[in-house]
Amino acid sequence: MEWRELMKGFIKGISSLFLIIFISLVLLTTKQPVYVPTIQTPPPTNYAEEIGDKLQASDFTKKTIIALRAAGYSPDSTIGYLVESPTNQIMTIHLHNIDKIDKSTESEIQYIVNRIAKNNNLHNFIVNVQLVDVSLQN
After folding, report:
1. Of 77, 97, 89, 74, the residue nearest 128 (C-alpha)
2. Which pLDDT value is given to residue 91?
3. Comparing C-alpha atoms, which of 75, 76, 77, 131 is closest to residue 102?
């Protein structure tokens, strides 16, 4: 009987040894390598640069000036932009030949600008309308 018990112990020991070797091999093959090569990714695009490219590609300024003139306004040939994020885009428009800017004028210009923005897949702008005093320029 001792011989059988000795064999059972030997078989259990060998089985345990094989089980430990098997588990070790599985862990070693699934373990991530210590050295992971770094992948160079381009730096994220600045939103202001991205929107600047979109404004140029869509001729947004030109379309806005044409639409404002068609509505009876006299804007400068340039428009100023201050862009920080999609929710904080400010556009400054200088108008000539108008006595004062009231709420209805601001609302109409805001509507014109946002319609053009929507048609060009751009976010809405906060429009800052300023009067240009022609007498100061002469």
Report:
1. 89
2. 94
3. 131
97 dihedral zone (left: phi>0; alpha: psi -120 to 50; beta): left
For residue range 29-54, what is the model confidence (pLDDT) as tens digits? 776 555 555 665 555 568 888 888 99
DSSP 8-class letter at 19: H
> Residue 29: which H helix or E strand, with range?
helix 2-30
Q: Which of 62-88 are b and which e, b meaning 16 or more Cβ less than 10 Å from the residue's Cβ?
A: ebbbebbeeeebebeeebeeebeeeee
Residue 126 pairs with which residues in a beta bridge? 90
- Mean pLDDT of all residues in 60-82: 92
d(CA 112, CA 97): 19
> How many C-beta neighbours within 10 Å does residue 100 have?
6
**In whole angstroms, what is the distance from residue 33 CA to residue 102 CA?**
67
Which pTM was predicted? Answer: 0.63
pLDDT at 70: 96
Angstrom distance (rounded) from CA 73 to CA 52: 25
Helices (H), 31-138: 47-57, 60-70, 103-119, 134-137
